[in-house]
Automatic annotation (TrEMBL):
The keyword Oxidoreductase applies. InterPro entries: Ergot_Alk_Oxidoreductase (IPR051604), NAD(P)-bd_dom_sf (IPR036291), NmrA-like (IPR008030). It comes from Pontibacter silvestris. The lineage of its organism: Bacteria, Pseudomonadati, Bacteroidota, Cytophagia, Cytophagales. Keywords: Oxidoreductase. Its EC number is 1.6.5.2. GO terms for molecular function: NAD(P)H dehydrogenase (quinone) activity. This is SDR family oxidoreductase.
Length: 290
């Protein structure tokens, strides 16, 4: 029997990988939710993927995307109104009889005095819990792919990358492993009501990350620890909204204090293989950094 799985935020770092991994499975219809079908053209190259437009703030516009959907992988963009967006999507899922929501959350979302982003994620989690829809929450650590998304220009241009994380260790996870867990949870039974904390196999500092980048690429790459003030100024100069800059600095502060180093065995327990190391990630993406 075929099931239809909707992936919201399908053009994002995680959503795109989930769509890719789901698309190769039998008996699964994948519906990729994108803000613009034009931007979603690349996803059409994947087998059996239907592209639908999703406008997160307008529930009426969501009807086609959610009609006859069995499960939803819920991803919302990093925006100031992401909580309201998520609630709109959840309301539509409930109205359309969706049976299971798998939400991409964040490690530490349960902390009452945690970061702004953590509190936002927890608010959405609680809204899902109260909806009556079966749920699973995935709480990953920082993504290895952020080195490609945010640092690669500096790495290629200057042989350096800059963050306000000091010597703090971070349990970076490869998005491929997050997606593998998402696919397991979306396509198999036994995950209702579960919360899974997902990390890579080790915690490393950005100094160690720089050493690995140098070894694999064969060129000298260094990490430059900067102050929070310098980091905020740089973000503001690149047109980052101030609320977003402050939210990012909260995360950097946790890293600096060594509070982002927790590792778990959850990926291996759920998908049967160890998560990618940072070394393997860089090796697989080396062309991005040279």
């Amino acid at each position: 029997m075929h099931e239809t799985i909707l992936v919201t935020g399908a053009m994002g770092t995680v959503g795109r990988e989930v769509v890719k991994q789901l698309s190769i499975l039998d008996d699964i219809r994948v519906r990729a939710g994108v803000h613009s079908t034009i931007k979603g053209e690349n996803l059409k190259r994947l087998p059996d993927v239907e592209i639908v437009e999703i406008h997160n703030t307008n529930q009426t516009s969501l009807h086609p995307a959610f009609t006859h959907v069995d499960r939803v992988f819920l991803v919302t963009p990093f925006t100031k109104d992401q909580v309201e967006m998520a609630k709109t999507l959840i309301d539509e899922a409930k109205d359309k009889g969706v049976r299971h929501i798998v939400k991409l959350s964040a490690l530490g979302a349960e902390a009452e005095s945690g970061t702004l982003l953590g509190r936002w994620h927890r608010e959405v989690e609680q809204y899902i819990e109260q909806s009556g829809i079966a749920y699973t929450f995935l709480r990953p650590s920082s993504f290895m792919q952020n080195f490609e998304n945010y640092n690669v220009a500096f790495i290629k241009g200057e042989g350096k990358f800059y963050e306000a994380t000091g010597e703090g260790k971070i349990s970076y996870i490869d998005v491929r492993d997050v997606a593998a867990v998402a696919v397991e949870v979306l396509t198999n039974l036994g995950h209702d009501g579960k919360i899974y904390e997902l990390t890579g196999p080790e915690a490393i500092s950005n100094y160690e990350a720089a050493a690995i980048l140098s070894e694999v690429t064969g060129k000298e790459i260094s990490f430059v620890d900067i102050s929070e003030e310098q980091a905020k100024q740089a973000m503001l100069e690149h047109q980052t909204p101030e609320w977003m800059a402050d939210a990012m600095l909260e995360l950097h502060s946790l890293c600096r204090k060594g509070q982002a180093s927790k590792t778990t065995n959850t990926v291996e327990e759920l998908v049967g293989h160890k998560p990618h190391t940072f070394y393997q990630f860089v090796k697989d993406h080396v062309q991005s950094f040279i």
